[in-house]
Amino acid sequence: MIEYVKFGKAPYRFVLIHGFPSNYTVWDNVIPALAEVSGGIAVNMPGIGNSPALEALSLDSIADSILRVIAYEGMERVHLVGHSMGGYTALSLMKKFNNVAGLTLVHSGANADSGERRKNRIKSIALMEKGEREVKVFITAMFKNFFSRQFTLAHPEIVNKYIQIGTAIPVSVVIGLFRSILDRSDSFDLIRSSGIPVQYILGTEDTATPLKEILPQAALPATCLVNIYPGCGHGAFEEMPQQLAADIVKFHNYIHG
After folding, report:
1. With DSSP H G I counted as helix, E B as strand and the rest as coil, what are the percentages for the chain, rounded to 5?
2. What would the DSSP string read from start to end of 190-245?
């Protein structure tokens, strides 16, 4: 079973899924506020931390690993919260599990990659397959452009923290996770037909998940809440953690009201 931490008290409803290439500590700044309204879990994807690696990584296989934890803990009416790749994983999980009360996509969306973005990911995979040094170069460059420019300049220690987290992940796992992102299909039909409320949390300075790509998706779910963070990049859990926690709690109270 994959590694996870529990927080709060029953009922355990939050399922927090980190993005690429990080771990469940990305939620450290928001968990205390979430724990005041409900319990939950934060997971490490396969191959990260003490989570056993999988021979074949895909969004489906990662979702299956999380579902085993959900079943083990007897969780119902879960509130899925996914950051970036964690959002893609949450969407895959929704296809397999019919006891989801709501979905929060943090810097994430239901779209597949555009043609140009696919080409860039393929080039990045080819680079990383050359070895550990190239993976470190890729991850370092990624996190130096992860947050807003202002935040990056003001908090180099946080940028370095995430570089260290990313480069500690085994090379094969990094490549497998990144390939899983490349291989995903869109989930537009899912969010349109499921009837499950969806919350989008987006940053105006997020170059990885641009507003113009994601905002049109807000018309698809039957119920949708969009929170836009001015001046925020791809990491609201560090850039605007109090606002992020408050908005997730507000949505949680709505779906469980």
Report:
1. 50, 15, 35
2. HHHHS---EEEEEETT-SSS-HHHHGGGGGSSSSEEEEEETT--S-HHHHSHHHHH
Q: What is the β-pairing status of strands 78-83 and 39-43?
A: unpaired
User: Among 41, 43, 54, 49, which Cα is nearest to 18's?
Assistant: 43
Tokens of 80: 């899925």
Q: Where along the chain do its domains lie?
A: 4-113+185-255
Please provide the CATH number assigned to the domain covering 4-113+185-255.
Answer: 3.40.50.1820
Are 30 and 244 spatial neighbours (Cβ–Cβ below 8 Å)?
yes
Under 8 Å between Cβ of 44 and 66: no
Say yes or no to pLDDT of 155 above 90. yes
pLDDT one-digit tens code per residue, 129-143: 999 999 999 999 999
Maximum separation of any 2 CA atoms in the chain, in Å: 51
Contact predicate 39/8, CB 8 Å: yes
Rounded distance between C-alpha atoms, residue 206 and residue 109, angstroms: 13
Give pLDDT tens digits for 31-73.
Answer: 999 999 999 999 999 999 999 999 899 999 999 999 999 999 9
Over 90: is that where the pLDDT of 253 sits? yes
Cβ atoms < 10 Å from Cβ of 227: 20
Distance CA 246, CA 239 (A): 14
How many angstroms separate the CA atoms of 235 and 128, rounded?
Answer: 23
Residue type, 102: G
> pLDDT tens digits, residue range 88-126?
999 999 999 999 999 999 999 999 998 899 999 999 999
